[in-house]
């Protein structure tokens, strides 16, 4: 049989269900691919070969026993290291949690297991999901399979690189300000942020609780929808989980694959067009994509979202504020490492030394920034104001969705940049999330779908949809995909 | 004028229980200053009458039935701790000796 690592997730599920290949053979093929490629890419922080083999064996046994298999049974998945996995090391790419093995599974991981998928291992990321390049990992950067001198996006850069380089057909990431969509865009993969509350946060190591959203990576839109449907749905262990049925994302992806968007209204945001700093090659690919959507039958409408230019500053007040509070739990007492406990230092001194040794520079910057934004005298001016801007951005979206079904934009202003080129200039790094952040503040779903190359590097088209209408972005994304040649990196 | 001074950064780091080095203070002060100048743009937005949004999902008082369920096993939880003794997390001294 041909190299199964070239198959889509849907195809893999098909060959496993038909018996053409066993789940065990599929798992071995991907483990072999990781063995061969990951030395150069560093997408995985931990490969759970033993666990993968056992999960694959269980699927093969279920099939042999005549039990019905789910739509992704036997398909391997890589999981971002911010999700707790029972008995499997989970570090969030921080030294703070080096060697920690969680005593429970995140809900999304539990659902992956229940669906019979095969977890290959844990992927690299920016420490505690803070970053846009995976360079802030405490375990070295992940490299982009399109060009090893460049970043794979972030914070879910290990998950994007693993899928782009065929070390996994599917992976999970989390998106707080663009951390699935931007890595998807710069690696030529599909990355989807579901509606906030549409996928459970239980078992995610919390960064910014009002924004954190787990979601899928895949090499095509249908595969992303299949994984989305497996992990989504109400979870009583997450108090912000939405108690409603999962939008029909798989059916929408199949409908979109007919390539017909007649009757669909697509909005382009004037304020994004006026934003500075986007690369000409990105803008060119994006304009071409908008033209293509028109050719597929969609009506393209230009409209205004006047508060979008304030999304980025509002985000960089809200997210650091919530992170400064969430990361207070890392105190060297309940999990992870402890530093400076020499019998003389006080508890408070040990905490400060532990946090100094355990956190990297971007995490410290954000904790300090958040502490500032929440401190007396500034909280109204900064955190309070940012929450008001969140309301205004939500109103912009609501008004826009009275005129159109979805909004589109480039996913990120620039293609994969060189490793090391932005780490000392945080504001330049933050600009990577310029187009993705509005959807996080609004809470609506958004997806990045490849829309061509600029100077040999992938560009993403972002499609944003109304809250709990995740199906719309999958329909438009799948239709657009029918016009594109699949992007395949050299590695 | 800078939005944040080196001394302020040192103070915030203390509040956040971060034992930052002198070198970090130098770097962070400049970087945080440029971040704050960027985010200060939200001051331009007229929003006096706008209510704040904390969560985009308007759920309030989410309740569930009060049914006891088994908790995680104590040894599983303590296994991940840096130090434990007598079935408890062990912490450094919190009171000065008399």
Automatic annotation (TrEMBL), chain A:
InterPro entries: Amidase, Amidase_CS, Amidase_dom, AS_sf, GatA
Assembly information from the UniProt record: Heterotrimer of A, B and C subunits.
Similarity comment: Belongs to the amidase family. GatA subfamily.
UniProt xrefs under Pfam families: Amidase
Keyword Iron: no
Species name: Actinorhabdospora filicis
Residue positions of the active site: 80, 155, 179
Record's function text: Allows the formation of correctly charged Gln-tRNA(Gln) through the transamidation of misacylated Glu-tRNA(Gln) in organisms which lack glutaminyl-tRNA synthetase. The reaction takes place in the presence of glutamine and ATP through an activated gamma-phospho-Glu-tRNA(Gln).
Name assigned to this protein: Glutamyl-tRNA(Gln) amidotransferase subunit A
GO molecular function list: ATP binding; glutaminyl-tRNA synthase (glutamine-hydrolyzing) activity
Source domain of life: Bacteria
PROSITE patterns, alphabetized: AMIDASES
Entry's EC annotation: 6.3.5.7
One Gene Ontology term from the biological process aspect of the record: translation
Record's keyword terms, sorted: ATP-binding, Ligase, Nucleotide-binding, Protein biosynthesis
Gene encoding the protein: gatA
Catalytic activity from the UniProt record: L-glutamyl-tRNA(Gln) + L-glutamine + ATP + H2O = L-glutaminyl-tRNA(Gln) + L-glutamate + ADP + phosphate + H(+)
Cellular-component GO terms for this entry: glutamyl-tRNA(Gln) amidotransferase complex
Enzyme class label: ligase
Domain Amidase span(s) in chain numbering: 25-471
From TrEMBL, chain B:
Lineage: Bacteria, Bacillati, Actinomycetota, Actinomycetes, Micromonosporales
NCBIfam families xrefs: gatC
Origin species: Actinorhabdospora filicis
Reactions catalysed: L-aspartyl-tRNA(Asn) + L-glutamine + ATP + H2O = L-asparaginyl-tRNA(Asn) + L-glutamate + ADP + phosphate + 2 H(+); L-glutamyl-tRNA(Gln) + L-glutamine + ATP + H2O = L-glutaminyl-tRNA(Gln) + L-glutamate + ADP + phosphate + H(+)
Classification via InterPro entries: Asp/Glu-ADT_sf_sub_c, GatC
Coiled-coil boundaries: none
Highest taxon in the source lineage: Bacteria
Protein's UniProt name: Aspartyl/glutamyl-tRNA(Asn/Gln) amidotransferase subunit C
Primary enzyme class: ligase
Keywords, comma-separated and alphabetical: ATP-binding, Ligase, Nucleotide-binding, Protein biosynthesis
Cited HAMAP family: GatC (MF_00122)
Subunit structure: Heterotrimer of A, B and C subunits.
Family label: Belongs to the GatC family.
């Amino acid at each position: 049989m041909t190299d199964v690592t070239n198959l889509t997730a849907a195809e893999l599920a098909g060959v496993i269900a038909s018996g053409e290949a066993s789940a065990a053979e599929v798992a071995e093929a991907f483990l072999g691919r990781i063995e061969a490629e990951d030395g150069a890419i560093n997408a995985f922080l931990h490969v759970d070969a033993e666990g993968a083999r056992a999960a694959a064996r269980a699927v093969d046994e279920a099939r042999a026993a005549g039990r019905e298999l789910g739509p992704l049974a036997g398909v391997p998945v890589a999981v971002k290291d911010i999700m707790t996995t029972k008995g499997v090391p989970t570090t969030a790419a921080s030294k703070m949690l080096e060697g920690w093995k969680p005593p429970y599974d995140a809900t999304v991981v539990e659902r992956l297991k229940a669906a019979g998928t095969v977890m290959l291992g844990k992927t690299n990321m920016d420490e505690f999901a803070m970053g846009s390049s995976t360079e802030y990992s405490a375990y070295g950067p992940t490299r982009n399979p399109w060009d090893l001198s460049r970043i794979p996006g972030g914070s879910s850069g290990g998950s994007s690189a693993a899928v782009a380089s065929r070390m996994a057909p599917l992976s999970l990431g989390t998106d707080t300000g663009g951390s699935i969509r931007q890595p998807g865009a710069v690696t030529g993969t599909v990355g989807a942020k579901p509606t906030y509350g549409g996928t459970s946060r239980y078992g995610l190591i919390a960064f910014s609780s009002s924004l954190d959203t787990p979601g899928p990576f895949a090499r095509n839109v249908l595969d992303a929808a299949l994984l989305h449907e497996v992990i989504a749905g109400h979870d009583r262990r997450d108090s912000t989980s939405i108690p409603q049925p999962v939008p029909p994302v798989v059916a929408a992806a199949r409908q979109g694959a007919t390539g017909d968007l007649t009757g669909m209204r697509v909005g382009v945001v004037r304020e994004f067009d006026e934003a500075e700093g986007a690369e000409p090659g990105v803008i060119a690919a994006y304009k071409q994509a908008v033209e293509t959507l028109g050719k597929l039958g969609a009506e393209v409408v230009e409209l205004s979202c006047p508060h979008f230019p304030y999304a980025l500053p509002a985000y960089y007040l809200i997210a650091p504020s919530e992170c400064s509070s969430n990361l207070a739990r890392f105190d060297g007492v309940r999990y992870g490492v402890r530093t400076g406990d020499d019998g003389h230092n006080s508890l408070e001194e040990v905490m400060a030394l532990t946090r100094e040794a355990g956190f990297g520079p971007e995490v410290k910057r954000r904790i300090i920034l958040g502490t500032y934004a929440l401190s007396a005298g500034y909280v109204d001016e900064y955190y309070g104001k940012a929450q008001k801007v969140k309301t205004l951005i939500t109103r912009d979206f609501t008004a826009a969705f009275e005129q159109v079904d979805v909004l589109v934009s480039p996913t990120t202003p620039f293609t994969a940049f060189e490793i090391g080129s932005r780490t000392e200039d945080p504001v330049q790094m933050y600009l990577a999330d310029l187009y993705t952040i509005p959807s996080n503040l609004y809470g609506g779903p958004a997806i990045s779908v490849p829309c061509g190359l600029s100077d040999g590097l992938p560009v993403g088209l972002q499609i944003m949809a109304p809250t709990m209408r995740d199906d719309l972005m999958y329909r438009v994304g799948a239709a657009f995909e029918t016009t594109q040649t699949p992007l395949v990196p050299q590695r | 004028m800078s939005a944040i001074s080196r001394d302020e950064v040192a103070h915030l780091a203390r509040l956040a229980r971060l034992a930052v080095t002198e070198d970090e203070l130098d770097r962070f002060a400049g970087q945080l200053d440029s971040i704050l100048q960027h985010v200060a743009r939200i001051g331009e937005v007229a929003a006096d009458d706008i209510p704040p949004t904390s969560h985009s999902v308007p759920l309030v008082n989410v309740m569930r039935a009060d049914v006891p369920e088994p908790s995680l096993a104590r040894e599983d939880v303590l296994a991940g701790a840096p130090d434990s003794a007598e079935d408890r997390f062990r912490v450094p001294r919190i009171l000065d000796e008399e």
